[in-house]
Amino acid sequence: MTRITHGTFPIAKPPQLETRAGATAPVLPASWECTALLHAYSPPPRNDPKTTPFYQMCLAFIGYVAEETMSIRVVGLDYGTWWYVITPSGTRVSTDKGLTFTDVDMGWTLPTQNWLPSTASYFQTGYLNWMEAQEVDWWTQPVPGSNAATWTWFDSATALPFRMMFGAPPPSPTMGDPAQLAFFQNFSFTYFPAFKATSSPNVSTWVTPVIEGFQPGNPNDLKLVVWNDCFYMTTFMTPVDSASLPLPTVVLYQWKPDADYRVVTDRAQATIMSYEYNPSAGFQDQVALLYGVAPAGTTPPPWAGNGFIYNEIYFLTRGYPTPVVLSCDNIGLGQQPPDWARIPAVEGTIHATVTDNAALSPGQATNIISVLFPPTKEYPQGRYLWTWYSLLPGSDGTNARPVTFMESASTIAEGGTSLALADYYDYVESPSWFPAEYYALPELCTVSDAGGKGTDKPTGAALHHTAPPPKA
Fold first, then answer.
1. Do 440 and 300 sit in the same domain of this protein?
2. In a designed cystine with 361, which of 154, 366, 446, 472 is the match (CB 3.0 to 4.6 A)?
3. 322 & 363 share domain
4. Range of the domain at 56
């Protein structure tokens, strides 16, 4: 079977950002207010006393005065209120909306106006996803004492923060790292739908945080998303290791029903990641090629339920691009089915719906969904994978378009890129199945110990379309 050259895929192109000339690290105003939508690293452990907000999605209203205070009023979607007041002398907390305060050691220090250290670097500028709500500047910074990175997206028009992703969790959910940004570091992923400079921020009275169009829970009994059985989409994959930059990506997906299944490429996904921003990698594209399981009661064809990651370069032969595969690994994880979010083991949950919020979901209704990644030593209760899906017209949630996907506390593999985040752009449902050559397995992948050198393995978002195994 003839393979296509994925780097020159004919029907979709990876999204592109632009370089903004003269980009400099933003300095926040001396006083400001904001609201924040905070995504937890994990659900609470068993028998959790519910004394902190950090095991749930939260809303916060925050006021700040430089060198004096940061006043953080937090409401959990599941339980509790907290009011943290950080000053140069320490942190106090109230759980009764300010009636009483107690000194608490959170390992935090009062933030300065410089959220980006001198080690931070500018990446690119552009829209965050297909909704095109605002253009943002992408900044990355290494985490001290770690090979992880923290990413911050600043609104290009205001130079104020819009989103943050932490690649390295704090020492524990109840103890922060003084070298990382206070409070926000205790959540994996944060949006700032409102952020403004003000000469008189509210730092002294309780304020219940409000985000326009935000509906907590699932009072309308919306359904978890089920993917279309044949589509392609484009995305930016963002890593959380400090040595790597984002990857423009094309995803091709198809899952034929049982009655139509004949060959391994009938259920397949190709995630094609461009390394144009990572030229030192030594290859042009990396492809995660995943095959779905065969229908029950049939004899599985070779490679059904398996996945491969390979690196390729391509060159022109008589004007036609020819791919050359440099290395390939069988990763053992296959394609996930269209109803991956409804698999009982992943405990898919709709935490909230955001409707027609100008910053987060303009003109759209978007479900915020979590599924659970399996337990680890650090998170025996599992880790959250957060994903946002915008409902298609007339949908009860089943038919929806992806907005973003984020894996909390993504493991940074040795030599890997740990792609924890995907922001989505193009999304096209195909009326006909893709040709088998789009999913043809390179010959090198079928050879034991292919090439002798393992690929630079991504995790997280690149393999998002592999259902996590059931929890123990």
1. yes
2. 366
3. yes
4. 31-197+206-211
Which single residue is written with the structure tokens 């079928």? 446
State how many domains the chain has. 2
* Residue that has been written with the tokens 């991504």 in this structure: 458
Dump the DSSP string for 367-417: EEEEEEEPP-SS-TT-EEEEEEEEEPTT-SSSSEEEEEEEETT----TT--
Are 239 and 366 part of one and the same domain? Answer: yes
The answer to whether residue 12 is domain-embedded is no
Cβ atoms of residues 402 and 392 within 8 Å: no
Largest distance between two CA atoms of the chain? 77
| Contact by Cβ (8 Å): 250, 12 | yes
pTM: 0.93
* pLDDT, tens digit, 9 for 90 and up, residues 219-258: 999 999 999 999 999 999 999 999 999 999 999 999 999 9
Of 402, 418, 438, the closest CA to residue 140 belongs to 418
Closest Cα to residue 409, out of 92, 40, 125? 40
Q: How far apart are CA 211 and CA 197, in angstroms?
A: 18
